[in-house]
Each structure stands twice: as structure tokens, then as C-alpha cells.
Amino acid sequence: MNKIEIKGAPLPNIPWEERPEGYKRPLWRYSANPVIPRDLLPDSNSIFNSAVVPFKGGFAGVFRCDDMNRRMALHAGFSPDGIHWDIKPETIKFEGADPEVGKWVYGYDPRVCFTEDRYWVTWCNGYHGPTIGVAWTKDFETFHQMENAFLPYNRNGVLFPRKIGGRYAMLSRPSDTGHTAFGDIFYSESPDFEFWGHHRHVMSPAPFEISAWQSMKVGAGPIPIETSEGWLVFHHGVLLSCNGYVYSFGSVLLDLDEPWKMIARSGQYLISPTTQYELVGDVPSVAFPCAALHDPATGRIAIYYGCADTVTSLVFGYIPEIIDFTKRTNIL
Ligand code: BMA
Questions:
Q1: Considering its fold, how many domains does the chain have in total?
Q2: What is the CATH number of the domain that holds 280?
């Protein structure tokens, strides 16, 4: 087998725990999950679906913290090791946007993408319904807000970590005002992070008979990882069960130059809710990834995912094994 090339900055201090003895699946759960409890802040009801990146030798992130009014807000946080987090009790105050767009309504499910010289934050931003908010920061103290990327209704805006074909690129998932009983992933391009177009369809839910866990809707999760086999994307998928929605996640490989073209798509899920913290919480049976750290030299990956809309957890794996899994269980 040819060696798989993985792009990205070295991350020898990636949070890590070895695979449990005899465990066969490509991702294994951290033994001390959840890493972020629901009450890390004095006023937090829940902290989940959050984004983490390497920062100044340690880690920083943007966290979805729902407060005890059950308002959805974003908070910055810092960590020396990616496991123990200091999340700021005050919400992020985005600066500089046109007041029409900058007026805060709600924000949730952030992603953070480092490209060129700054960290870009995308999130589900309230503006006459959910759409994709965009901002940048260099220090996780001051955040500069741009225009919303799209018209409502849209969720799960996920940037690529470099220009593709000379333009910035984003995945997103058009939705509705509520709990969206449908959903396909699209690809869009921008010359400047403000104007987004050249929309292309990437993927639909899978047929129920083929891969039921992703048969109702899908949405991109962490920032895509560039490899010699294509862009590795983790996506959540939803099953409509007789007891409501079940959120699992799997993986897909996208073409490096034309990322709206799929190369392989996992028919099996990587993680589906099975532990107590994934099955029980404010919204039962949700595993929702929004960020991943990886170390190209070792192939190690650490994925952060929200559990039951209540807490945040970690799973670990090796990128080459996940690529093999994606191809082995491919449903295309
Ligand atoms: C989605 C989003 C996520 C949430 C999930 C399960 O529509 O609202 O934030 O984790 O539902 O409730």
C-alpha cells in the first residue's frame, strides 16, 4: 500500500490515549469522557458542539455554551493540553459588522479554521432564521464579524483550510427554521470571505436501505483534512427512529481539486450514540462532531464532538485507518 500523505502543521502534543487492547473499530473514546462537563461555567446549562484549534503551543477554541435561560451563545476558551479548558464566562462580542447583521440574536455550532494568517469562525447565526455567520480572529480575544455567508436558512458552514482553484471554499447545509427533516451538503466559493457563489451539490442523505444512520439529513463536521487520497471530511448523519432523531457520524473523501465530487463515503458510522453521555442529556442520542486536531507525522487524529446536546467528548484514531475504513465500507 502506498503511504498516505497528510497535510497540516506538526502537532506532537495532540491530546492522545492509546487504543484499548483488543479494540477493533477505527475510532475509540477517551476513557475520561466527557472532557467538558455541562456546568464548567457557573451559568451554563450545557457546553457542546464546539470547535478547537492549536494555538500558541497550546489550544484555543470557540464553544457553544447554552446558558440557564437556554440562550445559545459562543464563548472563547483556552487550554494547555486540549483536555482541561478555561472557558471565558462572558460571551464573544463580535465587532465591526454592519449593525443589521451584527445585532446578536443567537449563535451555535461553531467551527474554527486557520488559513493564511488568521482563524476564521463560522457558526449558525440568527438572522431571520438560522444562517452562516463569519468572523475572524488572531488572538481569540477580539473577533471581527463579516457579512453572513448565505441567505437563511442554512447551518453547518465548514471552511476548507486553503484556497481551492484560487478561491476560499465552504461546505454548508441549507435547512429550515426548525428541526429540518431534510438536508444535503453543498459547496460554495468566495474570493474574499464575503461574497459566496458557484454553488455545487456535494451529497444527499443515503437511501434508508443502504445506510440508515445517514438517511434523513447530513451535515459537515470538522474542517476537512487534506490527504493524498482526497479531502477527509467527517459528517453527521441523522436517522429518524420511532423515538426521534439519532445523530451519528461517518466519513467521506472528496476530490482535492473539485471537492463537490465524492471519492468514497462510509456506509458504516464511525461513532453512533452508545455510551451514557451520548444517549442521555438534553437531546438524547446525539454525537455531533465540530472539530478535529491531527498530527501529520503520526497520522493521529482527535475529534471533538457534542454529546446529547449537553457535554463535549473526544475520540481518537489514525487517519490512514479512517481512510481505509471509508473505502472499505464505501456506498458510492
Ligand atoms: C441540530 C442542531 C445541533 C443539535 C442537533 C441535535 O439541528 O441544532 O445543534 O446538536 O440538532 O439536537
A1: 1
A2: 2.115.10.20
Q: Is 238 in the pocket of ligand 1 (CB under 6 A)?
A: no
What is the mean pLDDT, run by run of 10 residues, along the chain of 332 residues? 88 98 97 98 98 98 98 98 98 97 97 98 98 98 98 98 98 96 98 98 98 98 98 98 98 98 98 98 98 98 99 98 98 98
Does the CB atom of residue 66 touch ligand 1 within 6 A? no
Q: How far does the centroid of ligand 1 lie from the alpha carbon of residue 6, in Å?
A: 30
- Best of 106, 109, 236, 245 for a ligand 1 pocket test (most atoms within 8 Å of beta carbon): 109
- C-beta separation of 147 from 98 below 8 A: yes
| Domain membership flag for residue 1 | no
Cα 44 to its chain centre, rounded Å, is 21
Q: Is 12 part of a structural domain of the chain?
A: no
Instruction: Give the per-residue pLDDT at 204.
Output: 98
Q: Whose CA is nearest to atom 11 of ligand 1?
A: 179
Q: Give domain status of residue 198, yes or no.
A: yes
- How far is Cα 256 from Cα 297, in angstroms, rounded to an integer? 20
Residues in contact with 251: Cβ distance below 8 Å, sequence separation at least 6, in sequence order: 232, 233, 234, 235, 265, 266, 270, 322, 325, 326
196 in Cβ contact with 210 (< 8 Å): no
pLDDT of residue 69: 98
Q: Which residues pair with 267 in a beta bridge?
A: none
The pLDDT, as a whole number, for residue 2 is 60
Residue 2 lies in a domain: no
Query: CB of 224 within 8 A of CB of 299?
Result: no
C-alpha pair distances (Å), 201 with each of 125, 186, 187: 22, 5, 6
What range defines the domain where residue 286 resides? 28-328
Specify the pLDDT at position 156. 98
Give dist(CA 108, CA 167) in Å, integer. Answer: 26
